[in-house]
């Protein structure tokens, strides 16, 4: 024990003792700072000031992906459909086809009304109407001077109406003015336009027992499917159509899970135009859904900003033509999203780009009859053109366009 009787077990640090300890009366400021820092964990500081900001930035960039990947934990899959097998061959009589489905043939076919909301899908509309024109009694088209997101847009169909002379005698065309409510949920404007389309359908003269096709322009029922439904009695009053799901062109086949297209036996006062699930019955292999199947890069950007899921455009660079072109040729997602599935197995199975399909079998007949015109929709033709500004060169329309038939 040291002389004087004083003893301590406390460990000392020469540096801190010199700079901060009781024996030191004068110390350099740098020495004091070094003394203070000796008590701080540098790794903790790096985690706090570097790791945490990087984590927050990562969530900002990829949070949507995390949410979609974890979807099976917070959302259950919808009720399964009642699957109706679909029988067809061009050499089988209509009477036999009706019997194969458990239905019976009619003495005469029902009238068919095809009703669509139109934005800017001119080529898809031409393919659709040429596929259906032998079977449709009346084509009904409504367009607005407003996108679903409340942006002013030209009346694209009106500008291209000359291309559709082949249905002019059977066309009910209507225009409805947008409401242009700032900051409103896009689905509200979409619903408003669908209600207006419901009114236009009645103006077109539909009556009880007629068939009404409800689907978007790019959801194309096959002609033989509509022919079957108009000739057979005993079909469900409401029937969803399972369509083959394509992205960007008929090169990138995604799956067979497109079901929103539907056919209804019209009931006055009961049938309402809608684009959601309305029944459990689903007729398989009934046509094609070609989503974002545009000729020009500007058309992709226009739809990305115009349709109800505009919230998916999280960054402005998503709209760059060079990026859009790269995404199209890769078969990747325009919005950098994960697959919208309800099981981890299905999510993992669909990760990454869509594989190219080189089959052009069983596609819309008008497409294959006009290969030179629509070559960009066929396998091996992912490059898109850069059109002149198709919005800038058009005249602007009044915001207050009443629903009208033209």
How would you characterize this protein structure?
This protein has 406 residues and is of the alpha/beta class. The protein has a domain at 82-294: Spore Coat Polysaccharide Biosynthesis Protein SpsA, Chain A, CATH 3.90.550. The protein contains 13 helices and 15 strands. The protein has helices at residues 14-20, 29-37, 42-69, 71-74, 94-100, 122-132, 156-159, 186-203, 223-231, 297-306, 321-330, 344-349, 365-369, and strands at residues 82-84, 104-105, 112-118, 138-144, 171-176, 211-214, 219-221, 232-233, 238-241, 243-247, 253-258, 262-265, 281-283, 287-291, 404-405. It has a 9-stranded mixed β-sheet with strand order 1-13-9-12-6-3-4-5-15, sandwiched between helices. Helix 7 (156-159) links the parallel strand 4 and strand 5 (171-176).
Low-confidence parts: 1-17, 19-23, 392-402
The CATH architecture term of the domain at 82-294 is Alpha-Beta Complex
Mean pLDDT: 87
Specify the structural class. Answer: alpha/beta
In the CATH hierarchy, the third-tier topology of the domain at 82-294 is known as Spore Coat Polysaccharide Biosynthesis Protein SpsA, Chain A
Question: What is the total tally of β strands?
Answer: 15
Order of strands in the sheet with most strands = 1-13-9-12-6-3-4-5-15
Distance between the termini: 110 Å
Largest sheet: 9 strands, mixed
Strand content: 15-25%
What overall form do the CA principal axes indicate? globular
Radius of gyration: 31 Å
Regarding CATH, which class of the domain at 82-294? Alpha Beta
Helix content: 25-40%
Tally of contiguous helical segments: 13
H/E topology pattern: HHHHEHEEHEHEHEEHEEEEEEEHHHHE
């Amino acid at each position: 024990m040291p002389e004087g009787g004083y003893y301590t077990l406390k460990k000392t640090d020469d540096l801190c003792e010199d700079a901060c300890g009781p024996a030191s009366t004068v110390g350099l400021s740098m020495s004091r700072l070094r003394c203070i820092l000796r008590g701080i964990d540098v790794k903790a500081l790096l985690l706090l000031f570097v790791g945490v900001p990087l984590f927050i930035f990562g969530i900002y960039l990829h949070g949507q992906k995390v949410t979609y990947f974890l979807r099976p934990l917070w959302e259950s899959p919808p009720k399964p459909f009642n699957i109706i097998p679909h029988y067809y061959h061009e050499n089988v009589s209509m009477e036999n086809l009706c019997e194969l489905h458990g239905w019976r043939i009619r003495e005469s076919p029902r009238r068919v009304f095809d009703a669509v909301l139109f934005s800017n899908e001119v080529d898809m509309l031409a393919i659709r109407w040429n596929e259906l024109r032998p079977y449709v009694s009346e084509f009904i088209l409504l367009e607005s001077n407003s996108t679903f997101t409340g942006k002013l847009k030209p009346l694209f169909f009106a500008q291209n109406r000359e291309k559709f002379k082949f249905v002019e005698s059977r066309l009910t065309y209507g225009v409805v003015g947008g409401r242009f409510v700032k900051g409103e949920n896009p689905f509200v404007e979409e619903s408003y336009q669908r209600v207006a389309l419901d009114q236009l359908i009645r103006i077109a003269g539909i009556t009880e027992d007629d068939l009404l096709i409800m689907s978007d322009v790019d959801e194309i029922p096959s002609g033989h499917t509509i022919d079957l439904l108009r000739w057979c009695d005993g079909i469900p009053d409401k029937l969803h159509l399972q369509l083959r799901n394509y992205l960007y062109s008929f090169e990138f086949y995604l799956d067979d899970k497109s079901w929103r297209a539907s056919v209804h036996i019209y009931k006055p006062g009961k049938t309402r135009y809608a684009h959601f699930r309305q029944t459990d019955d689903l007729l398989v292999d009934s046509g094609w859904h070609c989503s974002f199947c545009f000729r020009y890069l500007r058309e992709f950007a226009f739809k990305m900003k115009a349709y109800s899921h505009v919230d998916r455009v999280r960054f402005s660079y998503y709209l760059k033509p060079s990026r859009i072109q790269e995404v199209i040729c890769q078969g990747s997602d325009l919005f950098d999203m994960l697959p919208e599935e309800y099981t981890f197995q299905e999510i993992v199975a669909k990760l990454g780009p869509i594989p190219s399909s080189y089959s052009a079998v069983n596609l819309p007949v008008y497409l294959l009859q006009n290969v030179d015109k629509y070559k960009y929709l066929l396998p091996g033709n992912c490059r898109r053109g850069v059109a002149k500004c198709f919005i800038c060169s058009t005249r602007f329309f009044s915001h207050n366009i009443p629903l009208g038939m033209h």
